[in-house]
Amino acid sequence: MNTLSRRTLLGSGAALLAAPALAQAKWPARPVQMLCPWAAGGGTDAVVRIVAALLEKELGQPFNVVNRTGGSGVVGHAAIAQSAPDGYTLGIITSEIGMLHWQGLTEVTYRNYTPLGLMNNDPPGIQVNVSSPYKTAKDLAEAIKASAPGKMKASGTGQGGIWHLALAGWLNAMGLKADHVRWVPSNGAAPAMQDLAANGLDFTTCSVPEARAMLDAGRCRSLAVMAPERLSVFPNIPTLKEAMGIDFTTGAWRVICGPAGLPAEVKAVVEPALARIYKSKDYQDFLAARGFGGMYADAAGTEKYMAEADRAFGEAMKAAGLAKA
Amino acid sequence: MIDMLEAVRLVAAPDVLIAILASAIYGLVVGSLPGLSATMATALLVPVTFWLSPIAAVATIITASAMAIFSGDIPGCLLRIPGTPASAAYTDEAYAMTRKGQAEMALGAGLWFSAIGGIVGTLSLVLMAPLLAEMALSFSTFEYFWLAFLGLMCATLVARSSPIKAIASMLLGLLISCIGMENPAGTPRFTFGLTDLLGGIEPIPALVGVFAVSEVMRAMITPEPPPLPRRKFGSILANQWKLTKKYQWPMWRGNFIGIIIGVLPGAGADMAAWVSYAMSKKFSKEPEKFGTGHPEGLVEAGASNNASLASGWVPSLLFGIPGDTITAIAIGVLYMKGLNPGPTLFTERASSMYALYLIFIIANIIMIPLGIVMIRIAATVLRAPRASVMPVILLLCAVGAFATGSNLFSVLMVAAFGCIGFVMERNGYPVAALVLGIVMGTMVEQNFITSLIKSDGDILPFFERPVSGVLAAMTFGALLWPVGIWIWNRTQGRRLPAGTAAR
């Protein structure tokens, strides 16, 4: 009896299809999918699309960006972590991965990924209305210390968002409680900047590029940036350390990665490619044009960076009462 | 003047002209497919703009979004399925006109008044940008709360069914908008542990479900309606001049409201269409004709949603604050192309600014011939047998929902809302009010809570700020007016029989 069952026939067909992929040791042998947890048209989407276009140029296979949105980023982040570690699904992850699990919204952490390269980091600034009496970060800090808890209002993003943590971390570093300044949740940085211009807030802690148009329009001032060094696009804004001697830095970062257990050969190809892309004129021009903060780290450096950020976010969230248990 | 000539030269470049034409066709097609919104049409263009010159990149976005907002009217009118949320307000009206055999008039009105709205909106951008931007910046969360609340009131004004049922479906919409963690507290609500519900219910799947899927379901259980008389599809623009003269005031009111709403960040074409349609009904001399296939509301709302599109660029260009979801995407493209938003764009890069104005005007002018072609092609749908149209629509709904986030969950959402919409329609609950609740719910809540946090729980600032005071008065006026009329009618009604008895 050597009748061919339907299943073996299908199986052999699949094996035939898979054979070239297995035989060909050289990755990438076919198009690679790049998942983006955020919607098309946003900042993360822009970064992953330019990286994908440059990877395509470097490695000679199409890198297709797929926006897997939903669940405040949880869906897309989980999709990257759960994809098959064959090198044909990579993705971009953002600082939210260091926050969502503290809130009990997902089990996925940075450990579920194979980092390939840190491509960008936007540090938060401290912005006030142009008519505000505070001329320096020190003035503002004095006023905050002198004010009754909850009297002063700041905004920049939703409750528990990255810029809320920036505020909490800054207040902590000053020796104040994380809710000493009341956080006004907003639907992103743009409405917060609008409210700052309408004199509805004392200051915002969104990133400097997000405040850029208002800065250019002379509607607000940026007092400091919570970064280790000044931003190349905004050289006039002092770092927090320069402005008031507090060495607190954080930021919204974006990392190219694959699922955990990515083959070493894939990593060996992508990691140096990303390093070349980061240095390329195309990518640097892109960062400068959007006002995005540049920051690069190789795979090992990225892993360390994400671990440190994860710990710092957890601390800030516990201090602000945002973490679950 | 030199700047103006330079602008003409910039726009007349072959790559810009090709970009305008190609994105116009693209916008018309995407906008007319149920489930694919104008915002999505724009978002999908972003990767393309990487390879275009700055002016061509901005041209694609302006043109595609203007076309998509207009062509969203087409499936709404022909099949009672709005292509974009901005068309949802007057879909029933346009469809009623089609059933009366006036499809060309309804679509023509959509086209003609969209183009006029777009051009008037552009003029407002040219002439009053700094003034309008100043106004937008004076709006704080208190004002936005009243504005969104006023938007919700439109549910009762627009509905033809009983106001009680309209309010009930609006409240259901508000309940649905509570789902997810995109609320001021950042706490997941009603998610039942489902990750997919964390981000809340997007208006698009809900809209596609309650309008398109429920329409398909209805088609399955009702006998095929008597075919429309087979006749030549009449001239599309023939009656539009007559309409323009007859409904001059509603048209200008629509343009005006569209401009104001467009300028305010966060409130876009959707809200402009709703408010204008409601206004139109409220101030019409013949409000009883609304909903039976009466062009007046179409004129006003059609002009309004396109006017808002142009004026939505005002805060974006001056302060980098998006007027709506489309300009939010456009701002990213502007930065990428070195056209950084800000007042300097108007002074140092004046030629680019003029080029932008020119593109707006061109887009709204070529909308008329291209729109006519599109309408003629689309109108063949009316002749196709229903059994072959409905499956295609169902397929488009599924594809459109999936395309928004490569997420199967939104397809399920569309199916669920289809069932909800079907049951609601059968029992006389207007589904448009449900969509309004979903769209406005977050805005009402967000601004209410934020305002209270800012005022430390004091509700007085909602009334003492001058603009919010006026808006509050308008809201209460709209709220109490029907009650007042009802009481007056009741007391009159009681007095009359008493009077007759005495006689």
Would you write up a description of this structure?
The complex is a heterodimer of chains A (325) and B (503). Chain A is an alpha/beta fold. Chain A is built from 11 helices and 11 strands. In chain A, helix 2 (43-59) crosses helix 9 and helix 5 packs across helix 11 (299-319). In chain A, strand 1, helix 2 (43-59) and strand 2 (63-67) form a beta-alpha-beta unit. Chain A folds into 2 domains: 32-121 and 252-320, Bordetella uptake gene, domain 1 (D-Maltodextrin-Binding Protein, domain 2); 125-244, Periplasmic binding protein-like II (D-Maltodextrin-Binding Protein, domain 2, 3-Layer(aba) Sandwich). Chain A has helices at residues 6-23, 43-59, 74-82, 137-146, 162-173, 189-197, 208-216, 240-244, 264-279, 281-290, 299-319; strands spanning 32-36, 63-67, 89-94, 113-122, 125-129, 153-155, 182-183, 203-204, 220-225, 252-259, 294-297. In chain A, the strands form 3 sheets. A 6-stranded mixed sheet of chain A has the order 2-1-3-10-4-11. A 3-stranded parallel sheet of chain A has the order 7-6-8, with helices on both faces. Residues 11-23 of chain A have low confidence and may be disordered. Chain A is globular. Chain B has one domain. Chain B contains 23 helices and no strands. The radius of gyration of chain B is 23 Å and the shape is globular. Mean pLDDT of chain B is 83; it is low at 496-503. At the A-B interface, helix 2, strand 2, helix 3, helix 6 and helix 7 of A face helix 3, helix 15, helix 16 and helix 21 of B.
